[in-house]
């Protein structure tokens, strides 16, 4: 509460420079507190700030954002969630389905908005897309449904690949759903799958050893913070072993991965800010329908393709939204 009071004083003092506060914040008499909990690095809080700024909210002036990040370590989530809940935020923005359940075990009344979620209904986090129910709402990133498309793209780039490795975390239920789906579509593309389940650093090292021995024709990396913590080592291994890769986000491609295909996270976070705004103005999460992605991004790293001795078909390059040269 003290932090909110200080922020309110600052916002009033800077009022002439910063412009008027939202009417709701002025009437409430205190600065809204927004919690941000991320199973990964938490860097995407900048996306949220950008979206909120477009709606007239400035962190440290007419809102306060408290960020907690687990950096891919699930065991840290309960303590971080407890810290946020004790602050009594008006709403918590959560990246990661596991983090949603951790918060709900502590408090089931604080409104929760998720900017990305692979399968909100299938995971049981919401009752339906039209009427989420409970205290949770947000946006789906469609990761589960895009598993087939990523395998298809990889096969187009490496048509001779008969074996494809899949790096994923079996402890994550939304990834379990993705693994089941990719198994059903693999025969359609004439590939056998090599499951590389990784839930700990030791298992990751064993996964690399397995790939060295099996020499698959490609690697599909499921997107989740517990897997993203191994990004650098995964890309380093792929480059050294000339292994074509496909990820979920372009951040991985900028770091040296070959391809990525997925929803535009910046756009999803900007739209999540609209959910936060509606909740601050009195809307209930149960009444805010889950929204779907509007933008999907195909990114290709030509420098990586050259490094691993691969030529990207012109048909793929033509469809690419971003090309790194």
Written description of the protein model:
The chain has two domains: 2-141 and 265-295, Response regulator (Rossmann fold, 3-Layer(aba) Sandwich), CATH 3.40.50; 143-263 and 297-324, Rossmann fold. It has 15 helices and twelve strands. The protein has helices at 2-13, 15-18, 23-28, 45-54, 77-86, 97-106, 143-157, 173-185, 201-214, 225-228, 231-240, 250-254, 265-280, 302-307, 314-319; strands spanning 33-38, 64-69, 91-95, 112-114, 136-138, 163-168, 192-197, 218-221, 245-247, 259-263, 296-301, 322-324. A seven-stranded mixed beta sheet has the order 7-6-8-9-10-11-12, sandwiched between helices. A five-stranded parallel beta sheet has the order 2-1-3-4-5, with helices on both faces. 45% of the residues are buried. Residues 1-28 have low confidence and may be disordered.
